[in-house]
Design brief:
It contains eight helices and two strands. By secondary structure, it is mostly helical. A hairpin with a 2-residue loop joins β1 and β2.
């Protein structure tokens, strides 16, 4: 009933009650105060402007975020996440800045499939036929995912 009134799934209400109920039951004022404390803690800048200025200088001198992180930890005993630095670079870019133009600041992304990927529907069809040829009398169906390389599944099924 509560879930319907506030427009959420009943599992959300159940999880909230389970997570925030103690010996005295559910205490909404305490839960609200706790949530505000967490929210305020996250909104505070973790690094001061001087530190960000130093990091910006290093980026402009073509240091990459992981290198900055390691150097600061070793020489300044100061911990800063390379992810924070990438986020800082992104915010700078969104504000019209130029930090993202430094070649070593581009976060490397892994391609899911490389340009040399040989998974085509024809290659997949040939491989399945080859692999199943010795047991074709015993195989009636195969289960596959929905990838594009299995687009010829009707042809495979006919043989």
């Amino acid at each position: 009933m509560i879930a319907k009134v506030i427009g959420v799934d009943k599992s959300t209400v159940s999880r909230e009650l389970k997570r925030n109920s103690g010996k005295r039951g559910y205490r909404p004022k305490q839960v609200n105060a706790f949530a505000k404390d967490i929210q305020q803690g996250k909104s505070e800048d973790r690094l001061d402007n001087i530190t960000w200025s130093f990091i910006k200088l290093l980026i402009e001198n073509d240091w990459f975020p992981e290198q900055i992180q390691d150097w600061m930890k070793e020489h300044l005993s100061y911990s800063v996440s390379h992810e924070w630095i990438y986020q800082y670079i992104l915010k700078d870019k969104q504000a019209g800045g130029s930090l993202y133009l430094h070649p070593r600041c581009k976060k490397k992304t892994k391609k899911r499939y490389g340009s040399n990927d040989r998974r085509t529907k024809e290659n997949t069809e040939d491989a399945i036929k080859r692999l199943l040829s010795s047991i074709s009398g015993q195989v009636h169906t195969i289960t596959s995912d929905n990838g594009k390389e299995l687009a010829n599944h009707e042809k495979i099924a006919k043989r």
